[in-house]
């Protein structure tokens, strides 16, 4: 419950409680606070039991922690065997390589290809994304700001 409170913070809370309530009333305040927390826990357990009994036997393994979306997704993904197929698909797809190939094609650079693969393609089809070296293609048409 107090896992994120450090030692110095805990000492400051105790000193503050002694200053506010005084040393003679502090034990009674602590007892009242613990009694209040205990009653809240009993009430929540009773409410959980009532909800489970009203839902019926088909929801006997229902956990209220599953209502948290993160816990629900974690549970569903842990039980699902299709993740193996997704991981295989993810490992076969290299997004960084695809992006560099597209940027090389757009910029007109020759893609970095291993020596075993020919740049013109194995089937002999021309590369449609490759820039042409003819002078009429090297010249860009004039830019018309009104047309855009």
Give a short summary of the structure.
The protein has 148 residues and is mainly alpha-helical. Helix content is 59%, strand content 0%.
Topology:
Elements: H1 7-55, H2 69-79, H3 83-92, H4 95-107, H5 135-138
Task: Throw out a few tags for this protein.
about 150 residues, mainly alpha, 5 helices, about 60% helix, elongated
Account of the 3D structure:
With 148 residues, the chain is mostly helical. Among the domains are: 7-62; 66-109, no CATH class. The chain contains five helices and no strands. The longest helix is centred in the first third of the chain and has 49 residues, at 7-55. The chain is elongated, with a radius of gyration of 34 Å. This is Sec-independent protein translocase protein TatB. The chain crosses the membrane at residues 6-22.
Mean pLDDT: 77
Q: Order of SSEs, N→C?
A: HHHHH
Which class of secondary structure composition applies to the elements? mainly alpha
Bin the helical content.
Answer: 55-70%
The beta-strand count equals 0
How many separate helices?
5
Poorly predicted parts? 115-122
Distance between the termini: 62 Å
The fraction of residues assigned to DSSP E strands is: under 5%
């Amino acid at each position: 419950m107090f896992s994120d409170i450090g030692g110095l913070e805990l000492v400051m809370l105790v000193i503050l409680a002694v200053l506010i309530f005084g040393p003679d009333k502090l034990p009674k305040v602590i007892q009242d606070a613990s009694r209040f927390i205990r009653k809240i826990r009993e009430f929540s357990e009773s409410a959980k039991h009532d909800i489970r009994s009203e839902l019926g036997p088909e929801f006997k393994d229902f956990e209220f922690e599953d209502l948290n979306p993160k816990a629900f997704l974690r549970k569903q993904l842990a039980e699902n065997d299709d993740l193996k197929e997704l991981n295989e698909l993810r490992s076969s797809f290299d997004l960084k390589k695809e992006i560099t190939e597209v940027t090389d094609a757009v910029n007109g650079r020759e893609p970095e290809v291993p020596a075993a693969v020919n740049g013109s393609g194995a089937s002999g089809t021309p590369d449609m994304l490759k820039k042409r070296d003819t002078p009429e293609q090297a010249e860009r048409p004039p830019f018309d700001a009104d047309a855009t």
